[in-house]
Design brief:
Number of strands: 0
Radius of gyration: 11 Å
Order of helices and strands: HHHH
Low-confidence stretches: none
Distance between the termini: 11 Å
Largest sheet: none
Strand content: under 5%
């Protein structure tokens, strides 16, 4: 497994690619809310599904259930912690 900083960079790139966002990884702060925060990528439920599927394909971690999904996808830090757990 990669180190945490590398993983966070990969996750930002994954979010941008899977959700077709016009931004760079540097535009996403590690702790900004991914959903509903105009300072972040401001993702929606379809984006959450895309990210969950991509995480399962790439890292072998399945994100299940509404609460688990909401917690894991709260921020890049939360998603990295979920994958590394």
């Amino acid at each position: 497994m990669v180190d945490r900083e590398t993983l966070k960079r990969e996750l930002k790139e994954l979010i941008i690619t899977e959700c077709q966002k016009e931004m760079s990884p540097d535009d996403i702060a590690d702790d900004v809310f991914l959903f509903g925060d105009p300072a972040g990528p401001n993702l929606d439920s379809l984006d959450a599904l895309q990210i969950a599927m991509a995480v399962q394909r790439r890292y072998g971690k399945r994100i299940e259930g509404n609460t688990e999904t909401r917690n894991a996808l709260a921020s890049v830090n939360a998603l990295a912690d979920y994958i590394l757990a």
